[in-house]
Amino acid sequence: MKDNCQREITYLRLSVTDLCNLRCRYCMPAEGVAKKLHSDICSVEELVEIAAAAADCGITRVRLTGGEPLVRRGILDICRGIAALPGVREVDMTTNGILLPELAGPLREAGVERLNVSLDTLRPDRYARLTRLGRLEDALAGLRAAEEAGFTGTKVNVVLMAGFNDDEIEDFVALTERYPLEVRFIELMPMGQADAGAYLPGDTVLARCPALAPAEPSGVARRWRLPGGRGLVGLIEPMSHRFCGGCDRIRVTADGRLKPCLHSNQEIPLRDLRGEELRQAIRAGIAAKPARHRMAEEGRSRTERNMNEIGG
CB burial class (10 A; 0-12, 13-18, 19+) of residue 279? Predict the structure, then answer.
């Protein structure tokens, strides 16, 4: 289905929980989030039903997000249910990787095809400081578990932050020399807990690593490769190279509200809708996608939710 800007919308980012086993400083407050009632969050069946209705509206790819999706009870049932839907060609997941040693194999068996692992530093002390609760060794064990389970095309998501990890850019790029990973540097967006003063443009990566050679783009990512490298380097640049004109996605929060744009306050309730009524609400959400965000002009995202509440 096309939106009002004639963009073909084929990608659903579906949050399964707003809870997380980490407390990353740009995403969540130190005390975490108030735990919602069980009845406030979509059930396994509701999430699969929403994905099925979205597939009827032209969605072919579903990415499961959180919070941290692997802390969600019933996550394997959600994966199996969505992977079996007619029209859904690919089910992916974004995770911090901490629980992958136990769940990477079962996720593969449940139909998940690709993983994005969030990893903003390769230094144990910084990882502990950023995440407040995590250990770098656990995240790295998760990456190894994903490889052992047979996942390919794994992406490492790195949020660029001035004064925090900008001195590790070369280290992350070097990973693509040895491993068949795609390291994706993501510009920090002015929303939620993020410190707008820590913003760095994606082009910083190219300035630091002049040996990078252009590669084929993928979706909204500009990509490069080191000569002889096994992996790729991607840049996700919502601020400096706004890619709204090519945006093909909608988002649904764990409490069942469709966001036509990550940075919009508009949310369309989907819970308690069934059949054609649910499909009509999803079509309305697709039609409501704005032409672009206005973070550069306004200095902040218009959304009133933290990223963990929307889905990373």
Answer: middle
pLDDT, averaged across the chain:
92
Q: What domain count does the chain have?
A: 1
Mean pLDDT of 244-263: 90
DSSP assignment letter at 210:
T
Burial class (CB within 10 angstroms; exposed 0-12, middle 13-18, buried 19+) of 155 = buried
Least confident of 146-155, 189-198, 262-271: 189-198
Alpha carbons within 13 angstroms on the beta-carbon side of residue 293 total 28
Alpha helices for 84-232 (secondary structure H) = 100-109, 124-131, 136-148, 169-178, 203-208
Biggest alpha carbon distance in the chain? 53
Closest C-alpha among 290, 289, 273 to residue 281:
273
CB 221 within 8 A of CB 156: no
User: Partners of 269 in the beta sheet?
Assistant: 257
Q: State pTM to two decimals.
A: 0.93
Burial status of residue 137 (CB atoms within 10 A of its CB: 0-12, 13-18, 19 or more): exposed
Nearest-angstrom CA–CA distance, 41 and 46: 9
259: CATH: 3.20.20.70
* Residue 3 domain-assigned (yes or no): no
- Distance (Å) of CA 173 to CA 185, 198, 213: 10, 20, 12
In 43-154, where do the E strands start and end? 61-65, 90-95, 114-118
Strands 249-252 and 11-15: parallel
Determine the structural domain holding residue 217 and report its residue range.
Answer: 11-310
Beta bridge partners of 90: 61
| Residue 267 binned pLDDT confidence (cut-offs 50, 70, 90) | very high
Of residues 43 and 302, the one with the higher pLDDT is 43
Domain annotation covers residue 2: no
Residue 302, CA distances (Å) to 94, 164, 261 in order: 23, 26, 10
